[in-house]
From TrEMBL:
Family note: Belongs to the methylmalonyl-CoA epimerase family.
Pfam family membership, one: Glyoxalase_4
Residues annotated as transmembrane: none
NCBIfam families in alphabetical order: metmalonyl_epim (TIGR03081)
Name this polypeptide is given: Methylmalonyl-CoA epimerase
PANTHER family, sorted: METHYLMALONYL-COA EPIMERASE, METHYLMALONYL-COA EPIMERASE, MITOCHONDRIAL
Domain VOC: 5-140
GO terms (BP aspect): L-methylmalonyl-CoA metabolic process
Domain of life: Bacteria
Keywords: Isomerase, Metal-binding
Length: 145
């Protein structure tokens, strides 16, 4: 298993609209993807794209807002009402091999491998096994970079 690039940093927010305004007005962001719902994960998602000098894809900020009462993000926001960093996401070439590798290292995987916001397979590794940081592992999107 080889760790790939940092794809995005997930930021939980009580309001994607307010967060978009913040990134535009305070941070000068101009490349913001229109928010969309991921009902199977119980979230509304929006990506703020960061620029790079090399022409490659920059790291994204993934804004995540609860969608529905059963959203896992809702619990995070109850503890952190202003929102905040929720997870980091790294790319891997082969999601099945990565999952096997993490499990072989005794790391706890949270739930099944599923399709994430980028349309590729993902899984999450428990924060207690990752130095306190919820970590998303994502198969590199085809044709990326």
């Amino acid at each position: 298993m080889k760790l790939g690039r940092l794809n995005h940093i997930g930021v939980a927010t009580p309001s994607i609209a307010d967060s978009i305004a913040h990134y535009r007005e305070t941070m000068g962001a101009t490349d913001i993807v229109e928010p969309f719902d991921l009902p199977e994960q119980g979230v509304k998602v929006c990506f703020v794209n960061t620029p790079t000098d090399s022409g490659m894809n920059g790291t994204q900020i993934e804004l995540i807002e609860p969608l529905g009462e059963g959203s896992a993000i809702r619990g995070f926001l109850e503890k952190n009402p202003l929102g905040g960093q929720h997870h980091v996401c790294f790319e891997v070439e082969d999601i099945a091999a990565a999952r096997e590798w993490f499990e072989g290292k005794g790391k706890r995987i949270l739930g099944p491998t599923r399709i994430g916001a980028h349309g590729t397979p993902i899984f999450f590794v428990h924060p207690k096994d990752m130095m306190g940081q919820l970590t998303e592992i994502m198969e590199t999107p085809k044709g990326a970079h």
